[in-house]
Structures are given as C-alpha cells and as structure tokens.
Amino acid sequence: MTMNKYHGLDLIDQSLKALEIIGELAKAHLGAHGPEALAALHAIAKVVETVEQGFDGKATLEDIRTKIDEGEALLHKTIAANDAAAEAAADAKFGPEK
Amino acid sequence: MITRRFAALSVATMTVLAMVIVLVQAGCGGPSKRARTLQTVLVSVNAARDGFAEFDRQQQQHVLEAAPTREEYLAEIEAYKKARQPVLEYFEVAYRALAVAALQHDEVSLKRALDEVADLIAAVNKLTGKGP
User: Fold this and answer.
1) Per the confidence metrics, is the pTM higher than 0.80?
2) pLDDT at A15 exceeding the cut of 70
C-alpha cells in the first residue's frame, strides 16, 4: 500500500466523519431553517469537495470492495440494533411478552 | 413533528443528490475515475444508510410511544417493518451493484450501480413520504 493510497483512504475516513458530524448537526437542529440549514448545506458542499479532490486513483478497487462489504454489514447491524432496542423498550413499557 | 423526525434523513438525501451531481461531472473514463466514482457513490449510499437508520430508530420509538397496548404496538410495528423491508432490499441491491461495478471494468455495471442508487433514493423518499 503506497503513501498516496493511504492518503486517499484517509480522505474518505475524514469525509465519513464529516458526514457523521452533519448527521449530528441535523439531529441537534431538527427542522433547521435559515442560517442553520445553510450551514448544513455548506458542510455538505465541503464534504463533496473533499471527496472529489481526494480520489485520484489512489484507493484501489479492492479497497472499495472491502468498504462496500463493511457498509452493507453496518446497515444490517444497525437495523438489528434498532429492532432490539425497540423490543426492549416495549418490554419496559408493557411488561415482558408472555 | 414529522419534519423533526425526517431532518436527519433529508440531510443524507441532499448529500446523495449533491454527490450524484459530482458524479455526473466526473464522468466514468479511466480506471482512476472509476475508482473515484465508485468511492463517491459508496460514501453517498453510506450517508443515506446512516440517515435511514436514524429515521428507523425514531420511527420505531414513535410507534411505541403512540401505542396504548402491546397488541396495538405489535400490529403497528409489523406494518412499519413490512413497509421498511423494500427499502432494506434496495440498500442491499445498491451495495451489491456497487460490488459488481468494483469487480468489472465496463460502463454498463457502473451505470447499473448508479441506477440502483437512484432507485434506492426513490424508495427511501417513498417510505418517508418525501417523494412520489
């Protein structure tokens, strides 16, 4: 793995972190309007710019395939966690299911 | 209230749309551009995934809060999960189409992946009442 490829993957990680920050921002300002919405859009534009500038053939297709698998696995893991949390909350509200 | 629940998702959707615009500008020429395109689409799908996961969490919480009895909760949550299932399948199809595109070097697989992502966005918007 070359320094350049690491650089590309670092940028993707940074982009993902930025997207997480945007998600948190949206959650913190649910129903944002005016300056807050503009700030979120600006943050998104910066992420897009970072991604666009960051990938110049430095990440291999194999790297991308790995990240695709991780992305799909995280989807199922997160949804399963949501279901489990909801079930636990239902038990807390109604009592354990008989 | 509905706006509050959907805000995280709408940001993710805007991100996807912004990145699709970038993709159109980037084109799909040589191998480096292909990798960059796939990477960008993957980031956008992951962003949509995170937004959808947050929507799902809030929706399940909302169903629980609104249900006066366990029976009504079970009926409502089953209906929601039935409506959610096609979206999960669209996510799977989009991820698999990306994986195929990452194994091939043709434009057809890349275009198919982009089409699947577009279908995914439509499915998410349909579930959340944001689209046709």
Assistant:
1) no
2) no
Mutation pick from B10, B15, B56, B62 vs chain A, by most beta carbons of A within 10 Å, is: B15
B51: number of Cβ within 10 Å: 27
Nearest CB to A82: which of B4, B34, B53?
B53
* Closest residue, chain A, to B30 (C-alpha): A57
Reply yes or no on whether the pLDDT at B35 is more than 50. Answer: yes
For residue B59, the tally of other CB atoms under 10 A from its CB is: 22
pLDDT of residue A78: 95
* A68 interface with B at CB cutoff 8 Å: yes
Any idea how long chain B is?
132
Using CA atoms, how far apart are residues B87 and B85, in angstroms rounded to an integer? 5
* Amino acid making up residue B95: Y
Phi-psi region of A59 (alpha: psi -120 to 50; beta: other; left: phi over 0): beta
pLDDT in tens, A80-91: 999 999 999 999
**A16 has a chain B CB within 8 A of its CB:** yes
Model ipTM?
0.76
Nearest to A78 by CA among B45, B88, B38: B88
Residues of chain B contacting A11 with CB distance shorter than 8 Å: none
